[in-house]
């Protein structure tokens, strides 16, 4: 077993996330997973767009959506995308401490986003938009809720990594893990770009 | 044969060249971020101000969204890097299937006949 | 066979926790064969019900349930897992790899598939199986009383997650794990077609995931997607289902095409004719597979232009498929053909599948489709492509790869009885159904009236089904009586590809030394131009292998528990199930497991035994 062998110190490679076969596999597989997720969200967007005018007398997009709230949420998520970019840059630089700092910043911004989303859903439910009130309500909650579930999962995932590796330094094992988590986080932001455009902006303006 | 311990912390610093590259990258990323904030704000203002007719606003904000997504994919997520041929192929494949799905669910659900 | 970690544990523990792609392949394969037998039995029950007019062998409700389960089981839990078994076992061997890219996920994929199958079949014992057809069209499915359709939704959802993982796993394996010299354009056609199949899985299954999610939300959590009274739209289900469903039928046929492309060159002793054209035809079929789904919906009322577009796109698929058919024929042309059972299935496939293809083009004619729609003509068509294509491919693969997978050769004599009975039974069953359909007999109906000229053809069809059933029993007997044929198993067919260069049964590390591939059909090249053995690409050294794990079992178990919670709407059960799943995932995430190394001495000992 590996533990008995003489261990040669590992020098930081330029791209630690892709320095091992496992890392390269993980990198590729995660991108492919995101390709599948694209279709998954595509199906949800399609369903929403097919049903968005079916409010059946219940509240509709123009009655509900507040652009100022959505704008803040968008900015939070966009900023968290930037902080996770900085985390990866610091990983490649070999600066583990700053990697952790930027990742924590990402988590906190993610939590902030979730807080706004919960408040938003609570508000809508208060205004009479129950889940089964109309086909529009179901498809809206399902689309935005699936995105929210992704944010939640991302926050839990990154937090797990941060606690597990709080003292380990950058290793050949955790570099691909942080890297894929960041890819996931960017993807969440990509989906949100379409949500704020298609759901909220078109909901109010179209 | 000496085995590599994948749990050992990586030692040493990034090479000068890597540092230079990363510095350049940070700058690119900040510029892209500022640009994305700008186009997001533009999109919101387009809808929020009632002056712009929706016939123009809708395609315009969809265009802005596409630009922003492509920037995310190619700058933040590094799909422009070398050796990402398969990644590009499968992401665009996914986007293609997703686009077909959205189009079908918008147009072909039996409400309007084409 | 030895590794210190596994040998100390019991056999069952070893098979549950295994990350060896060969063992997982065998698990997929045998489970798939079992479900195949169950679904086949369901088919025979249906045929007995239809043997005479106005039979009361099964009640209408039971007939609907058996009909639904036959389709669902055959596609998701028989044909696909059997192909996954072949892919798991063969792909790493064909590309010269020691395992797939993600052994852990591979194991997880198997357990998700098995638990999905179990969830689906538990429905028989809890008040009725799903009864809305394998397509589960809303609002029939969203309004179906009882829990039947809920089992359908959760069973497919759980196994679908596993399928998606396996698809990604194969994609990465093919891209990253090929041996030196094995360029993409030197890959055997089975690996190529599995690769394209995996792409289809990646893009098709998420649409099903969402379709099932919407159906679940409607049925259990009060959603309004398919509730027309609340503004819902039932056509959305059909689109989502077929955006998945059409690629799904290509997921079932492409691996079979791959198997025929291995079997035919081997038994014609000729290189595959038009290798490059075959690869591109496979890619084009895969691409077109996503452009044609709405041809299942011609009668929905999308409109004439939409119908025409999808009709033309559908007909275009005949072009790459035709290229393939001609390439197989030209491979056979002038070859020294051996009529082994594997090759007999390949030869029978060509005319049978062409018949299915021709009725496919007929159905693609959207105007004529109004006449064919929902009749037995459609049933005849898709059984001709699925049995004449996929199932023949499976049986060709069974006889071709059995020595590699299980270390003994199936009896050719019994195999030939099996082949002829199955072939005759198949055509007897389904050829007449074309005419039943044209005479107006609707599909999915539990009975028919006397005096409508439907009696004779239905009786013939049922007799054919019995013949297929008897043939399958012969295959099962063959499996048991052939176990002593353990000679000449390493390379019994004078093979061309890498899997025949290593001993049978295959050592758990596959290749003692990673092979160097110098040409397409690498082993054949060495047989002609070298010493008949693969050259090594690396010195003999320790081999790094992954450790087994019980965690995938618990991840899948947790999801199944949660599924039962959803079906019976118990939040506590849902939460408990999800906690099990997330706890197992959490442990997997925080516990680093770097595997172990097989020492050189063990590899050398294995090689001595082999000599």
UniProtKB/TrEMBL annotation, chain A:
Pfam families: COX3. The keyword Membrane applies. GO terms for biological process: aerobic electron transport chain. GO terms for cellular component: plasma membrane. The chain crosses the membrane at residues 28-49, 69-89, 101-119, 139-163, 183-203. InterPro entries: Cyt_c/ubiquinol_Oxase_su3 (IPR024791), Cyt_c_oxidase-like_su3 (IPR000298), Cyt_c_oxidase_su3-like_sf (IPR035973), Cyt_c_oxidase_su3_a-hlx (IPR013833), Ubiquinol_oxase_su3_dom (IPR033946). It comes from the Bacteria. It is found in: Cell membrane. The keyword Lyase does not apply. Keywords: Cell membrane, Membrane, Transmembrane, Transmembrane helix. It is a multi-pass membrane protein. GO terms for molecular function: cytochrome-c oxidase activity. Residues 28-204 form the Heme-copper oxidase subunit III family profile domain. Belongs to the cytochrome c oxidase subunit 3 family. This is Cytochrome c oxidase subunit 3. It comes from Alkalicoccus daliensis.
UniProtKB/TrEMBL annotation, chain B:
Keywords: Cell membrane, Membrane, Transmembrane, Transmembrane helix. The chain crosses the membrane at residues 30-49, 55-77, 89-111. It is a multi-pass membrane protein. Residues 13-25 have a biased composition (Basic and acidic residues). It is found in: Cell membrane. Pfam families: COX4_pro. One of its GO terms (cellular component) is plasma membrane. Residues 1-25 are annotated as: Disordered. This is Cytochrome c oxidase subunit 4. It comes from Alkalicoccus daliensis.
Automatic annotation (TrEMBL), chain C:
Its EC number is 7.1.1.9. It is a multi-pass membrane protein. Pathway: Energy metabolism; oxidative phosphorylation. It catalyses: 4 Fe(II)-[cytochrome c] + O2 + 8 H(+)(in) = 4 Fe(III)-[cytochrome c] + 2 H2O + 4 H(+)(out). The keyword Phosphoprotein does not apply. It is found in: Cell membrane. Keywords: Cell membrane, Copper, Electron transport, Heme, Iron, Membrane, Metal-binding, Respiratory chain, Translocase, Transmembrane, Transmembrane helix, Transport. It comes from the Bacteria. Cytochrome c oxidase is the component of the respiratory chain that catalyzes the reduction of oxygen to water. Subunits 1-3 form the functional core of the enzyme complex. CO I is the catalytic subunit of the enzyme. Electrons originating in cytochrome c are transferred via the copper A center of subunit 2 and heme A of subunit 1 to the bimetallic center formed by heme A3 and copper B. This is Cytochrome c oxidase subunit 1. It comes from Alkalicoccus daliensis.
């Amino acid at each position: 077993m590996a533990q008995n062998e003489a261990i040669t110190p590992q020098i930081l490679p330029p791209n630690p996330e892709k320095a091992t076969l496992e890392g390269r596999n993980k990198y590729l597989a995660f991108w492919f997973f995101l390709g599948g997720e694209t279709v998954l969200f595509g199906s949800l967007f399609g369903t929403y767009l097919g049903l968005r005018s079916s409010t059946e007398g219940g509240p509709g997009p123009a009655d509900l959506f507040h652009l100022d709230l959505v704008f803040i949420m968008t900015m939070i998520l966009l900023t968290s995308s930037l902080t996770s970019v900085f985390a990866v840059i610091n990983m490649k630089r070999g600066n583990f401490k700053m990697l952790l700092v930027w990742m924590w910043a990402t988590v906190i911004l993610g939590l902030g986003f979730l807080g706004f989303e919960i408040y938003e859903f609570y508000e809508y439910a208060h205004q009479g938009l129950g889940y089964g009130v109309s086909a529009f309500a179901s498809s809206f909650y399902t689309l935005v809720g699936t995105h929210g579930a992704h944010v939640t999962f991302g926050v839990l995932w990154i937090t797990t990594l941060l606690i597990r590796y709080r003292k380990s330094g950058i290793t050949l094992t955790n570099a691909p893990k942080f890297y894929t988590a960041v890819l996931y986080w960017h993807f969440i932001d990509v989906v949100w770009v379409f949500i704020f455009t298609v759901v909220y902006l078109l909901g109010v303006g179209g | 044969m000496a085995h590599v311990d994948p749990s050992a912390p990586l030692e040493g610093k990034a090479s000068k060249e890597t540092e230079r590259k990363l510095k350049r990258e940070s700058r690119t990323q900040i510029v892209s971020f500022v640009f994305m904030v700008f186009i997001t704000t533009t999109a919101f203002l387009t809808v929020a101000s009632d002056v712009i007719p929706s016939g123009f606003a809708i395609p315009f904000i969809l265009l802005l969204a596409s630009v922003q997504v492509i920037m995310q994919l190619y700058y933040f997520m590094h799909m422009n890097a070398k050796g990402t041929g398969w990644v590009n192929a499968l992401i665009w494949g996914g986007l293609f299937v997703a686009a077909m799905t959205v189009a079908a669910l918008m147009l072909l659900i039996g409400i309007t006949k084409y | 066979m030895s590794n210190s970690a596994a040998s100390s544990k019991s056999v069952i523990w070893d098979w549950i926790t295994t990350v060896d792609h060969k063992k997982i392949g065998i698990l997929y394969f045998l489970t798939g064969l079992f479900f195949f037998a169950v679904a086949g039995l369901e088919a025979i029950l249906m045929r007995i019900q239809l043997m005479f007019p106005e039979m009361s062998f099964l009640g209408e409700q039971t007939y609907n349930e058996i009909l639904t389960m036959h389709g669902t089981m055959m596609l998701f839990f028989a044909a696909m897992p059997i192909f996954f078994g072949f892919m798991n076992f063969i792909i790493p061997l064909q590309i010269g790899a020691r395992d797939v890219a993600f052994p852990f996920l591979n194991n997880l994929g198997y357990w998700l598939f098995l638990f999905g199958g179990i969830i689906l079949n538990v429905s028989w014992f809890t008040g009725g199986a799903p009864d809305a057809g394998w397509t589960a069209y809303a609002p029939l499915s969203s309004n179906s009383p009882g829990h039947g359709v809920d089992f359908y939704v959760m069973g497919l959802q759980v196994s679908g997650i596993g399928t998606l993982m396996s698809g990604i796993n194969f994609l990465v394996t093919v891209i990253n794990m090929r041996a030196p010299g094995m360029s993409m354009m030197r890959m055997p056609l089975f690996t190529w077609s599995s690769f394209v199949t995996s792409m289809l899985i990646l893009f098709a299954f998420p649409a099903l995931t969402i379709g099932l999610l919407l159906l679940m939300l409607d049925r259990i959590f009060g959603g309004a997607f398919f509730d027309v009274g609340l503004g819902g739209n039932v056509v959305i289900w059909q689109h989502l289902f077929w955006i998945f469903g059409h690629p799904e039928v290509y997921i079932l046929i492409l691996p079979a095409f791959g198997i025929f492309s291995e079997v035919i060159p081997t038994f014609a002793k000729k290189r595959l004719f038009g290798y490059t054209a075959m690869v591109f035809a496979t890619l084009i079929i895969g691409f077109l597979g996503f452009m044609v789904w709405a041809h299942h919906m011609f009668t929905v009322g999308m409109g004439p232009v939409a119908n025409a577009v999808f009709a033309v796109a559908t007909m275009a698929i005949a072009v790459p498929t035709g290229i393939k058919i001609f390439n197989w024929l030209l491979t056979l042309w002038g070859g020294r053909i051996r009529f082994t059972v594997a090759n007999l299935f390949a030869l029978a496939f060509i005319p049978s599948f062409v018949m299915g293809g021709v009725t496919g083009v007929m159905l693609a004619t959207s105007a004529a489709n109004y006449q064919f729609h929902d009749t037995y003509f459609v049933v005849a068509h898709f059984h001709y492509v699925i049995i004449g294509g996929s199932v023949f491919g499976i049986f060709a693969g069974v006889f071709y790869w059995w020595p590699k997978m299980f270390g003994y050769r199936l009896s050719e004599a019994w195999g030939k009885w099996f082949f002829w009975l199955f072939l005759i039974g198949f055509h007897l069953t389904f050829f007449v159904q074309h005419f039943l359909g044209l005479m107006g007999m609707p599909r999915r109906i539990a009975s028919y009236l006397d005096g409508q000229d439907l009696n004779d053809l239905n009786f013939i069809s049922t007799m054919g089904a019995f013949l297929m059933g008897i043939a399958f029993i012969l295959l099962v007997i063959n499996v048991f009586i052939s176990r002593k044929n353990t000679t000449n198993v390493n390379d019994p067919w004078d093979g061309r590809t890498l899997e025949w260069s290593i001993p049978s049964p295959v050592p758990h590390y596959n290749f003692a030394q990673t092979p160097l591939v110098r040409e397409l059909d690498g082993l054949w090249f060495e047989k002609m131009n070298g010493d008949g053995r693969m050259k090594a690409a690396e010195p003999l050294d320790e081999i790094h292998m992954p450790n087994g794990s019980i965690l995938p079992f618990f991840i899948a178990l947790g999801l199944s528990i949660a599924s039962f919670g959803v079906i019976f709407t118990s939040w506590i059960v849902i939460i408990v199930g999800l906690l099990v799943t997330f706890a197992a995932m959490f442990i997997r995430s925080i516990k680093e497991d770097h595997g172990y190394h097989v020492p050189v001495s063990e590899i050398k000992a294995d090689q001595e035994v082999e000599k």
